[in-house]
Design a protein that fits this description.
By secondary structure, the chain is of the alpha/beta class. The protein is 34% helix and 25% strand. It has an eight-stranded mixed beta sheet with strand order 4-1-5-10-6-9-7-8, sandwiched between helices. A two-stranded antiparallel sheet has the order 2-3.
Length: 260
């Protein structure tokens, strides 16, 4: 067990002890509250979208559905913009979601475990010189998926102009036509549409975690957290060929390989 996983496991165990120590009157829930509310970030294909049958689909949707099945938990899944999702998780009106972890989030949410690592890259338009540092993008117009967040070093850099786009297909197409100077996103999705041998800048490797509200009344029973934690363990396999999360990724991203 690595140190980070060990610390988080101990932190979760401590949280369960605190919750267990509350009186049954404090944590009793009526039947209308027992169905959880999960959010999936509204960032478009291949992570979430509405398919031709009118149902939500995508990588994050299917991983969420599989997690709930493995955990034997019922939940509504809502497609939610990032900022609203964070606000509602803190308020307790949404129970759980899968999104990039951070030290700040570790204070606000129960962090149950890693879903997948996500290297984040920026590609250049053919008209632009290759970038060696993030500062090389200052003054340039960089496309990003509407609602996505890639870390404060990029998101908060006011010298980098940013254009919100609907999906990866649009982003890569606009880069290749030099309508924008670059495009940022998950390497796994850009690689499906763009020849990475042309060159790219690696911003960071982010970790997508299952994170749950500390204020939701539905999350105040240790059984729920324990079920979700146990269900999450069933989504991982050391053999990538048998790994459920990797299998879902490859359904939408043919060239996907699990990051180390």
């Amino acid at each position: 067990m690595n140190s980070r996983k060990g610390i988080l496991t101990l932190s979760l165990a401590a949280s369960l002890i605190i919750i267990s120590s509350q009186s049954q009157a404090e944590i009793a829930l009526d039947n209308s509250q027992t169905e959880l509310k999960f959010a999936v970030i509204n960032i478009g294909e291949p992570y979430e979208f509405t398919n031709s049958s009118g149902h939500i689909a995508g990588i994050l949707v299917e991983i969420t559905q599989l997690l709930l099945a493995k955990s034997n938990i019922k939940a509504n899944i809502e497609i939610t913009p990032y900022k609203r999702m964070i606000h509602e998780l803190k308020a307790g009106s949404i129970d759980c979601a899968m999104f990039f972890t951070s030290q700040i989030h570790s204070k606000d949410f129960f962090q149950l475990g890693l879903i997948a690592k996500k290297p984040v890259i920026i590609i250049n338009s053919p008209a632009q010189a290759s970038a060696k540092n993030l500062s090389d993008f200052e003054g340039r117009n960089i496309g990003r998926i509407r609602g996505a967040h890639y870390g404060s070093e990029f998101d908060d850099n006011q010298k980098i102009r940013k254009s919100d786009l609907n999906n990866y297909q649009q982003g890569v197409a606009q880069v290749m036509k030099s309508r924008i100077d670059g495009f940022i996103g998950a390497q796994e999705s850009i690689a499906e549409l763009y020849d990475l041998s042309i060159g790219y800048y690696t911003l960071s490797s982010r970790e997508n975690w299952l994170q749950c509200s500390k204020t939701s009344p539905r999350m105040q029973t240790p059984e729920i957290l324990e079920k979700l934690y146990s269900g999450l363990q069933l989504l991982h396999n050391r053999d990538e060929r048998l790994d459920p999360i990797s299998i879902i990724h490859r359904k939408y991203l043919q060239s996907y390989t699990r990051p180390l």
